[in-house]
């Protein structure tokens, strides 16, 4: 059970309105009490913060915004003392344009060895005034920007995030060293950012599709820059590096691929340990669709002997309370996710039932998507609003200082603070704590298999051995439980012993 901390929005120790490493350390007790096993921290490295820290200037140093270099070992030591493991985020697809390598590349000019670590190319058209390909940035606009001397460089994200050339041996060596650097400092694992993007087709073919399809391709097979087969050699090498530090250092891949069998390739025995299951995250609140995703996932990952993982929210997507349109559904979804075989990833604030903040004023929007899309896509700030910890008015204990939080919090979060929910077993926090505690104790939960049970349309019912059952009702009718079961945990009140629509229960055979 891994809990994602978006460091910037978790807890602020120095009163500047932005979360930091010491703030996180001070709240580790809350996470231990919640019942998770590990914390994944989003990037806190030196960065100009164009993309919230995913534009890394120096991967071996903490940014002053987040703390000093002392804070990292202190965080790791405190987490270990509390029995929590720490995963860090490594961003191999690109660097910041302020990274020493990119500055050297710009200074050295066309044809230089410094430029070979990135993707610099001449433009098309008579004076080279057209980009080398029609590739688009994920954040909107072209994926190429022209340097002052006329060459173009590739950036699949913001122009301040130039893509590295992973065919260059120095790039490979640098990241292997970096992994050793952090593993040697006690870090337990690494989340790999854009793991599916590292290699580019050296022929640089045009995509030729329309813009929308290029940004969100329905099928990525044969794509020139997503999910190329060669990326797996990189991860085989990384696995060996992890092995130098014993059997317990783990990787999780952020790989947006279009089929479970493509995802399974990332978690073959000599590659990465786990990968986020975005098919589950992208699935609608629909029983048949969920069942299909669950089956396909278990089948594809089972075939390579890798554990399944499940995730409902993260710092890049609309929070699931809002996606599902209803806190009751979010409660039921949590019980479904936590009952499935394998591991799960929680995103900070889902245990408080936070919704997407959809009415942030335009002037505070910080996600590069907003500018890059010409103000047509607001971007991901709505799921990144600082957490409400306590009290009845913003900043809800997030910061001790007077500086405003870097994104404003809604006033009604007074009801959703960790403090307000802690004493109420009926709250979302109460539900997550109870579910995580049961998950730890119950021998049927965690790794293993499931068996589907007959149920009416719209109802998901499965059992796990020994003696555990889960029923999720996505239909419009209440569902009558069989007589030989006892309810261990329910997502909300039952309706005369029946599971109401948008309700879920965990069961024990009596
Ligand atoms: C990943 C991160 C996202 C970031 C992007 C570029 O998708 O999760 O937040 O913007 O990579 O690094």
List keywords for this structure.
binds alpha-D-glucopyranose, 5-stranded antiparallel β-sheet, Immunoglobulin-like, 26% helix, Oligo-1,6-glucosidase, domain 2, 15 helices, 510 residues, globular, alpha/beta, single chain, TIM Barrel, 8-stranded parallel β-sheet
Kindly describe this structure.
- The chain contains 15 helices and 20 strands.
- It is of the alpha/beta class.
- The chain folds into 3 domains: 346 residues, TIM Barrel; 55 residues, Oligo-1,6-glucosidase, Domain 2 (Oligo-1,6-glucosidase, domain 2, Alpha-Beta Complex); 62 residues, Sandwich (Immunoglobulin-like).
- The strands form 5 sheets. It has an 8-stranded parallel β-sheet with strand order 11-10-9-5-2-1-13-12.
- Helix 8 links the parallel strand 10 and strand 11.
- The chain is globular and about 75 Å long.
- The two termini are 28 Å apart.
- The mean pLDDT is 96.
- The protein binds alpha-D-glucopyranose.
- The site of alpha-D-glucopyranose has 9 residues, from loops.
Briefly say what this structure is:
By secondary structure, this protein is an alpha/beta fold. Helix content is 26%, strand content 15%.
CATH class category label of the largest domain: Alpha Beta
**What is the terminal separation in angstroms?**
28 Å
Rg (CA only): 23 Å
What structural class is derived from the secondary structure elements? Answer: alpha/beta
Bound molecules: alpha-D-glucopyranose
- Tell me the CATH superfamily of the largest domain: Glycosidases
**What spatial order of strands do you see in the largest sheet?**
11-10-9-5-2-1-13-12
Question: What is the subunit arrangement here?
Answer: single chain
Report low-confidence residues grouped into runs of 5 or more: none
**Nearest-integer average pLDDT:** 96
Summarize the amount of helix as a percent range.
25-40%
CATH topology of the largest domain: TIM Barrel
Number of contiguous helices: 15
Number of domains as seen in the coordinates: 3
The CATH architecture of the largest domain is Alpha-Beta Barrel
Q: State the shape.
A: globular
Q: Give the percentage of residues in beta strands.
A: 15-25%
């Amino acid at each position: 059970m891994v809990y994602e901390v978006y460091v910037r929005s978790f807890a602020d120790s120095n009163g500047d309105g932005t979360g930091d490493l010491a703030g996180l350390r001070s709240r580790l007790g809350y996470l231990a009490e919640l019942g998770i096993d590990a914390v994944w921290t989003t990037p806190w490295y030196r960065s100009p913060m164009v993309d919230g820290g995913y534009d890394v200037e120096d991967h071996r140093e903490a940014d002053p915004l987040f703390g000093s270099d002392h804070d990292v070992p202190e965080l790791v030591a405190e987490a270990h003392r509390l029995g929590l493991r720490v995963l860090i985020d490594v961003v191999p697809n690109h660097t910041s344009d302020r990274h020493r390598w990119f500055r050297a590349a710009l200074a050295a000019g066309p044809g230089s060895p410094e430029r070979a670590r990135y993707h610099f190319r001449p433009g098309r058209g008579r004076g080279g005034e057209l980009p080398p390909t029609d590739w688009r940035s994920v954040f909107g606009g072209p994926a190429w920007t022209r340097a002052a001397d006329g060459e173009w460089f590739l950036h699949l994200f913001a122009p301040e995030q130039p893509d590295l050339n992973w065919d260059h041996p120095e790039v490979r060596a640098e990241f292997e060293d970096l992994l050793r650097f952090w593993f040697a400092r006690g870090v337990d694992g690494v989340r790999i950012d854009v793991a599916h993007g590292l290699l580019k087709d050296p022929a640089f073919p045009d995509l030729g599709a329309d813009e929308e399809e290029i940004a969100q391709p329905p099928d990525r097979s044969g794509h020139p820059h997503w999910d190329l087969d060669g990326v797996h050699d990189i991860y085989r090498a990384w696995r060996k590096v992890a092995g130098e530090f014993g059997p317990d250092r783990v990787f999780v891949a952020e790989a947006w691929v279009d089929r479970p069998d493509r995802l399974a390739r990332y978690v073959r025995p000599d590659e990465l340990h786990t990968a986020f299951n975005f098919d589950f995250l992208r699935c609608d609140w629909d029983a048949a669709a969920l069942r299909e995703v669950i089956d396909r996932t278990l089948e594809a990952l089972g075939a390579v002997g890798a554990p399944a993982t499940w995730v409902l929210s993260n710092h890049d997507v609309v929070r699931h309370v809002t996606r599902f349109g209803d806190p009751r559904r979010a409660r039921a979804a949590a019980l479904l996710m936590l009952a499935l075989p394998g591991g799960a990833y929680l995103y900070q604030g889902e245990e408080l039932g936070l919704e997407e903040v959809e009415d942030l004023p335009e002037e505070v929007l910080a996600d590069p998507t907003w500018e890059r899309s010409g103000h047509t896509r607001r971007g991901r700030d709505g799921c990144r609003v600082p957490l409400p910890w306590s009290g009845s008015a913003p900043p809800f204990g997030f910061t001790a200082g007077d500086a405003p939080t870097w994104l404003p919090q809604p006033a009604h979060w007074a009801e959703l603070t960790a403090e307000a929910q802690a004493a109420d077993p009926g709250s979302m926090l109460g539900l997550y704590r109870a579910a995580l505690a049961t998950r730890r104790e119950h021998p049927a939960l965690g790794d293993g298999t499931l068996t589907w049970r007959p149920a009416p349309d719209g109802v998901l019912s499965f059992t796990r051995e020994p003696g555990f059952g889960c029923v999720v009702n996505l239909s419009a009718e209440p569902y009558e439980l069989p007589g030989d079961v006892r309810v261990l945990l329910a997502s909300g009140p039952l309706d005369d012993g029946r599971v109401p629509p948008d309700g879920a229960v965990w069961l024990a055979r009596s």
